[in-house]
UniProtKB/TrEMBL annotation, chain A:
Keywords: ATP-binding, Cell membrane, Membrane, Nucleotide-binding, Transport
Keyword Transferase: no
Protein name from the UniProt record: ABC transporter ATP-binding protein
Entry similarity comment: Belongs to the ABC transporter superfamily.
Keyword set includes RNA-binding: no
GO molecular function, one term: ATP binding
PANTHER family: DIPEPTIDE TRANSPORT ATP-BINDING PROTEIN DPPD (PTHR43297:SF2), OLIGOPEPTIDE TRANSPORT ATP-BINDING PROTEIN APPD (PTHR43297)
Domain named ABC transporter: residues: 8-256
Topological type in the membrane: Peripheral membrane protein
Short name of one Pfam family: ABC_tran
Annotated localization: Cell membrane
From TrEMBL, chain B:
Coiled coil: none
Record-linked Pfam families: ABC_tran (PF00005), oligo_HPY (PF08352)
Subcellular location, principal: membrane
Transport found in the keyword field: yes
Start and end residues of each ABC transporter domain: 8-255
Protein name: ATP-binding cassette domain-containing protein
Presence of keyword 4Fe-4S: no
Family: Belongs to the ABC transporter superfamily.
Compartment(s) where it occurs, according to its Swiss-Prot or TrEMBL record: Cell membrane
């Protein structure tokens, strides 16, 4: 067996709707190593949540898994029974959902909710479970946790609810923790605390983390590797340095260029014009082509395969084809590459993984 | 300076939950500020500091424990239910909620969610006009107009947030409270929505209270910013003053934690911790005091000179 704790292979997921079949996940493959943090970023609606929900076995009832494998320690989760999946969830696999309000039970006190996974999966007494729940609530930074154990979810702020959800997810020390936008509702200080907490968890227990977020600043701080999704596909994957300093896909370029910095002012933010394709009827060629200023004829005709940039870096864009013309990426991307080259020359960073590692 | 029109005045607002009980929360604890017509007022601060509660009090979801809120000069607690003033208030003040899931009725189709306000305020004459307007609004927020008959659960997180924005814009309000309107969106769409909110603001002379924790985005969109901590305002000033010349140690701490999309910077980042004990070691009352032109800091009388000196540098 490899050091991959999770291998997702050629996953295809559709949703049946009145309007037709939504092809939400279109041939997604990726790996997760033990103890690493993989960040998934990408356009809203690109399939980040659906991909990770499928790992948990928690897809909506109108979902159909057309094809694919999800191997957890070599075992295909898609073949497990409902009962076996119940056991995986809360023991080996745990997920922090994007919507804290719907993943909390509004009628149950938060103390009970955090203690529940312990009661179900470990056979420990009610008192011990509640005590541990309080500890974890303190750990995630709920003020006055002791006296607020008996309060209900609606009595907490948006960020506090999110922290309660995190407490539930980690109370049982899972092997894989999937965090779907766990910090978007949090301010930067608490966000930093939660990220530190996850890192700590990872160091102590070698937890593997899949982290979904829109915040590229958070990604830069937490990820070992990054996968970029667009229209139901992973379009680029690489180490955090490869994606931030040497991105190859025009969508990744657009994404990195639309971040405001603390000194952007007045001028319009640069954004990627247009809207993503309708997944009821995905285009024949590269789904990003209509919004891609670098699109070529072939982008409209055929989907690009993954081109290898390094052992750890792959991108699905025809621009990497040997016959493609050389293009100049947008200015902010060129600047990133230059800054990185400079850092490397001055020895401020480790040598990149190009060909050398793994 | 010409007198600018104040659209919102918050005066010594306190909002306590379970007062007097062991689980008492002083969510908002004596804050005062004004919002001028046409500006974007940013409210930042850590989770649980009372930002949403402030917004919810302004839109009259709570009765204040004490203090007053004026909208266009009128005390909102005095507006009678079912009166003409109430209809005016409801139409002209809209809120985009932090939690796009909880705020959309799962049993309603998207077009009915968005058109609800249009119906209540009689803003469209017939079904055709209603559909037309809904489709326009969907386009404005970057959603596919053909999806009008879908239900909220058929959209991704970011798509749902945009439905909430379309709903708020539908009735052409004067003042919008945007509670973390973009944190659920991916960055390219964040940029679109923020550009959009700015465009609409210019066209309609809209005023925003923009609540967020993404400090780079708040700075980008806001004219003035207030920093909230434990139910109180720590610092208030122009966006430039608060970001480039922060005075209060809490603001400095907050700014030192803003993550940047650069792995090297993140590896070397050190955050400034905030030591709240400085709030205890003075005798006279701590309150917002003006240090520079329109730049206020929460401090005691004796600390004013120190802050003034700091600002000179
Ligand atoms: N139950 C469902 N029925 C129909 N379509 C669905 C359903 N759930 C998700 N989808 C569609 O599948 C696609 C992927 O959705 P997903 O929630 O994975 O997006 P996401 O990448 O997590 O986006 P966000 O960043 O906005 O959360 C979207 O186009 C969405 O509209
Ligand atoms: N209905 C309620 N009952 C009891 N306590 C409440 C209630 N609503 C909010 N609180 C408490 O009031 C405080 C302020 O909450 P608020 O929602 O205003 O915070 P916030 O600044 O918006 O935080 P976030 O960034 O996490 O959304 C928190 O401690 C919260 O637990
Ligand atoms: Mg999602
Ligand atoms: Mg809030």
């Amino acid at each position: 067996m490899s050091d991959n704790i999770l291998e997702v292979k050629n996953l295809n997921i559709n949703f049946k709707t009145f309007a037709g079949t939504v092809q939400a996940i279109r041939d997604v493959s990726f790996n997760l190593k033990k103890g690493e943090t993989l960040a998934i970023v990408g356009e809203s609606g690109s399939g980040k949540s659906v991909t990770t929900r499928s790992i948990m076995g928690l897809l909506a009832s109108n979902a159909v898994i057309e094809h694919g494998e999800i191997l957890f320690k070599g075992q295909d989760l898609l073949k497990e029974s409902a009962k076996e999946m119940d056991h995986h969830r809360g023991n080996d696999l745990s997920m922090i959902f994007q919507d804290p309000m719907t993943s909390l039970d509004p009628t149950m006190t938060i103390g009970k909710q955090v203690a529940e996974p312990l009661r179900i999966h470990g056979k420990i007494s009610k008192e011990k479970a509640l005590k541990r729940a309080q500890e974890v609530l303190e750990l995630v930074g709920i003020p006055n946790a002791k006296n607020r154990m008996k309060d209900f979810p609606h009595q907490f702020s948006g960020g506090q609810r999110q922290r309660i959800v995190i407490a539930i997810a980690i109370v049982n020390y899972p092997e894989i923790l999937i965090a779907d936008e766990p910090t978007t509702a949090l301010d930067v200080t608490v966000q930093a605390q939660i990220i530190d907490l996850m890192r700590e968890l990872q160091e102590k227990l070698e937890t593997s983390i899949i982290f979904i977020t829109h915040d590229l600043g958070v990604v830069a701080g937490i990820a070992d590797r990054v996968a970029v999704m667009y229209a139901g596909k992973i379009i680029e994957v690489g180490t955090v340095d490869e994606i931030f300093y040497q991105p190859k896909h025009p969508y990744t370029w657009g994404l990195l260029s639309s971040m405001p910095t603390l000194d952007t002012k007045g001028a319009k933010l640069s954004s990627i014009p247009g809207t993503p394709p309708d997944l009821l009827d995905p285009p024949k060629g590269d789904a990003f082509a209509p919004r891609n200023p670098y699109a070529m004829q072939i982008d409209l005709e055929a989907q690009p395969p993954f081109f290898k940039v390094s052992d750890t870096h792959y991108a699905a864009t025809w621009l990497l084809h040997p016959d493609a013309p050389k293009v100049q990426p947008p200015a902010p991307i060129v600047k990133r590459a230059q800054e990185y080259a400079h850092l490397m020359q001055t020895g401020a960073v480790d040598t990149p993984s190009e060909g050398s590692q793994n | 300076m010409t007198e600018r029109k104040k659209i919102i005045q918050v005066q010594h607002l306190k909002q306590y939950f379970s007062p007097g009980k062991p689980n008492e929360v002083r969510a908002v604890d004596d804050i005062s500020f004004d919002i001028y017509e046409g500006e974007t007022f940013g409210l930042v601060g850590e989770s649980g500091s009372g930002k949403s509660t402030t917004g919810r009090s302004i839109i009259r979801l709570y009765n204040p424990t004490s203090g007053k809120i004026l909208f266009e000069g009128q005390d909102i607690s005095k507006i009678k239910n079912h009166s003409k003033d109430m209809l005016h208030f409801r139409r002209n003040m809209q809120m985009i909620f932090q939690d796009p899931y909880a705020s959309l009725d799962p049993r309603m189709k998207v077009k009915d969610i968005i058109a609800e306000g249009l119906d209540v305020h009689g803003l469209v004459k017939n079904d055709q006009e209603r559909d037309q307007r809904v489709k326009e609004l969907l386009k404005v927020v970057g959603l596919n107009p053909d999806h009008v008959t879908r239900y909220p659960h058929e959209f991704s997180g970011g798509q749902r947030q945009r439905i909430g924005i379309a709903r708020a814009l539908a009735v052409d309000p004067k003042f919008i409270i945007a509670d973390e309107p973009i944190s659920a969106l991916d960055v390219s769409i964040q940029a679109q929505v923020v550009n959009l909110m700015k465009d609409i603001q210019r066209k309609n002379n809209l005023t925003y209270l923009f609540i967020a924790h993404d400090l780079s985005m708040v700075k980008y969109i806001s004219d003035r910013i207030a920093v909230m901590h434990h139910g109180q305002l720590m610092e208030l000033g122009s966006a430039d003053a608060v970001y480039n010349h922060p005075l209060h140690p809490y603001t400095k701490s907050l700014l030192s934690a803003v993550p940047l999309p650069d792995p090297e910077i993140e590896r070397r980042r050190t955050r400034l911790p905030y030591d709240s004990s400085i709030e205890n070691n003075t005798h006279d009352q701590r309150q917002l005091r003006e240090i520079g032109d329109g730049h206020y800091v929460f401090c005691s009388e004796e600390e004013v000179d120190g802050y003034k000196e700091q600002m000179q540098k």
